[in-house]
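tl;dr need the bound structure. longer version: we got a ligand (alpha-D-glucopyranose) that a collaborator sent over and nobodys looked at where it sits. i said id run it. heres the input, straight from their email, havent touched it
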Amino acid sequence: MANRFRSFWSNFKTVYDVNNELNFNNKKKVKSHHQQIREHCQNLILTDDQVQEYMSRFLNCIKDGLRLSTHKYATVKCFPTYVQDLPNGKEKGKFLALDLGGTNFRVLIVNLAENKFDMNSKIYAVPQAIMVGTGEQLFDHIASCLADFMAEQHISNETLPLGFTFSFPCIQEGLTKGILKQWTKGFDCSGVAGHDVVQFLKEAINRRGDLNIEVVAILNDATSTLVSCSYQRHDCFISVIVGTGSNACYVEQTKNCETFNGDRNKPLVIINCEWGAFGDNHELEFIRTEYDVEVDQNSINTGRQLHEKMVSGMYLGEIVRLVLVKLTKEKILFDGKAPDILFKSGSFKTKYISEIESDKVGVYSQCKNVLLNKLNFDQVSEQDCVDVRYICECISRRAAHLISAGVATLINKIPYNRVTVGVDGSVYRFHPHFHNLLVEKIKCLVKPGVTFDIMLSEDGSGRGAALVAAVASR
Ligand code: GLC
């Protein structure tokens, strides 16, 4: 771990070392362009004061979400999940799970024996036309994938309990009732918002008439990640998703959650923060940049999920692209010329950030690969690579620092001195420095005496859904 850290910082140094050498050769031009680029990127670097301000605003938003009198207008909804019983390792049986909410849709079969976990799964695509079609089309697609999977697994004739990880904001009225508040992350299927998603799924299954399924739980991906990590680590009280979208869950004392209508005799309940919507009431204007404004304006849910749009995989690449375009137009990057593709929205994928930042110290092979082979540049200079990497670093570090500030706020809120944070999502998994950036920043932000671990959740969404299904049918 320490090595990963060191190489990250030495990478940083090298970017500037290389720049100095280039300065020596071509002093006036390179220095002024590089300096101008750095000045342009200054507003993408969060100061300590801004991070503190973010934390205090976020905490207020959480409290607004939990309080009955303020919940309606709160941006961070803090939905109670009705998950109050965590697995104890004694769950047994065969369970199905569905996982919908990112780029792919998965169906899983899980076999639980005492402290044993066997799993088989298959990934299905969700075509773009279905992502923005009707609710019936989406759920018919889900039911047909489920039928295909069950046939492949030779379980079509069994009656199995199913846990449904549905990674969109839902108002839960129990473990088996989730009313979709609104779509996020590029989904926009008509007729579903305001309705119970479990009902949609059941109706689609009934329309087919060939499956026997009992939907026993619906939950968010952050919730299933928390449940799944707590199965392995009993001090896991917080989970975070940094993938296509971003969100967090945490374990709250029931007495602090005024909107909860479930069993108040049980002391704890998992809260689905839905922190992606933080900022939707102007709470983040003090750090949003022109790039964030543009990303939002070009999205299908303008004005919503503003925090998510600064930190998650669906948007980070596009933020980088907008910076690259702006600096090219200002003629301080790429000598003012870039291929047409760079000017097309969505052409700079978030995974390119991870690739570019994976390059070893002083080497730019991944960066060149992205620029030459993915973005059709004819040639790029070493200085272009230094600058592109710097821009990627600013944007991924800003995301990591915002996530850290959110996590630290939650750690500081809950009454435990030792906390494991379960994390999942493509940005966290594939960005080479994200984990270290989180650890380093959270350390600076938590109250004295608290220790924490950041744990990668292995298959949290699917596992968690199966585990909750198992607990529900316990
Ligand atoms: C979006 C969804 C949220 C989900 C997150 C991560 O923010 O609204 O429910 O947990 O993406 O997938």
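gonna send this back to them w/ a short note. The longest helix spans residues 382-413.
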